[in-house]
Amino acid sequence: MIKLSDSLAYSPTWSPDSKKISFYYSDGDQEIYIINSNGTGLTKLTDNALTDILPVWFPDSKKISFLQTNDIYTMNYDGSNVFQVTSTANINNLSVSPDGQKIAYESGNYIWIMNSDGTNPVNITLAYTTGTRPSWSPDGDKIVFAKTTYPREICVINADATDFKYLTNDSWDDDSPCFLCKPK
């Protein structure tokens, strides 16, 4: 076992190539960090007075998307080329598609999909239900998410906003769904 941090790290996520782990923790405010998978090379990627959380890797392991004060940003894995993708200040969760071309996110208690450069945002759950914590299927065709009203249920919808289904329907709060991929 390797200790990766002396502080409480939030949302640790392996890079797709398994070489690095991204996470955030607070050193007065929340900042994004990466570390090599062997525990070396701790690098602070963001350093500002804003809240930087929820880092998500692009499939090429070269870019990271994250939330900064509830807007989506992207940057290279070394912290360079920071780009503001949205300007709504109303985003709570995000997920990058398996091909890196799209981002699914929660805004206003609905699931949206847009191009990874921020263009063409589409609300895919408005006609069905509210949603949070989107996760892409390995083929990029579907989004699984949790309904935001209680009891929370797990739902799935095609990325083109068709074929909505409840996967759970019970009195328990079901939350934080994700698709699993077969190991390569």
What helical percentage do the residues reach?
Answer: under 10%
Q: Mind telling me which CATH architecture of the domain at 10-89 this is? A: Single Sheet
Write down the oligomeric state: single chain
Q: What is the CATH topology descriptor of the domain at 10-89?
A: N-terminal domain of TfIIb
Secondary structure tally: strands: 16
Structural class: mainly beta
Mean of all residue-level pLDDT scores: 91
- Unreliable stretches covering 5 or more consecutive residues: none
* N- to C-terminal distance: 23 Å
As a whole number of angstroms, the C-alpha radius of gyration is 16 Å
Tell me the name of the CATH class of the domain at 10-89.
Mainly Beta
Q: What general form does the structure show?
A: globular
Explain the layout of strands and helices.
Elements: E1 10-14, E2 20-26, E3 30-36, E4 43-44, E5 52-57, E6 63-68, E7 71-76, E8 83-84, E9 91-96, E10 102-107, E11 110-115, E12 122-123, E13 132-136, E14 142-146, E15 154-158, E16 165-166
Antiparallel strand pairs: 1-2, 2-3, 3-4, 5-6, 6-7, 7-8, 9-10, 10-11, 11-12, 13-14, 14-15, 15-16
Give an overview in words.
This protein has no helices and 16 strands. It has strands at 10-14, 20-26, 30-36, 43-44, 52-57, 63-68, 71-76, 83-84, 91-96, 102-107, 110-115, 122-123, 132-136, 142-146, 154-158, 165-166. The chain has a 4-stranded antiparallel β-sheet, with no helix packed on it. A 4-stranded antiparallel β-sheet has the order 5-6-7-8, with no helix packed on it.
Salient structural properties:
mainly beta, four-stranded antiparallel beta sheet, 42% strand, globular
